[in-house]
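## retry 2 of 3
previous attempt timed out at serialization; input unchanged, resubmitting
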Amino acid sequence: MHLALEVDPAVLPEMLVNGRAQGIETRGVSHHGFIDSIYFRDPNGYDVELCAKAPSHDAMMDPARNGAREKLDRWTRSRVAGSA
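## retry succeeded, writing output
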């Protein structure tokens, strides 16, 4: 379980440095294609993610262009067929 918060892309490098400087368990930058993320571990062991949209984000998330609905429908049909 984790919490993800969107930040401006310029904030990620600064927060990465700040987290490490304060001795907080910090990972990143992870490049996920459509977002870049850094992760902090809070005192209770949960991950807090700061993510920033990559320049390609909006195009990749556009349902008219990314084929997500068709992929989900195909996956759903395969699950239904597999349970018959």
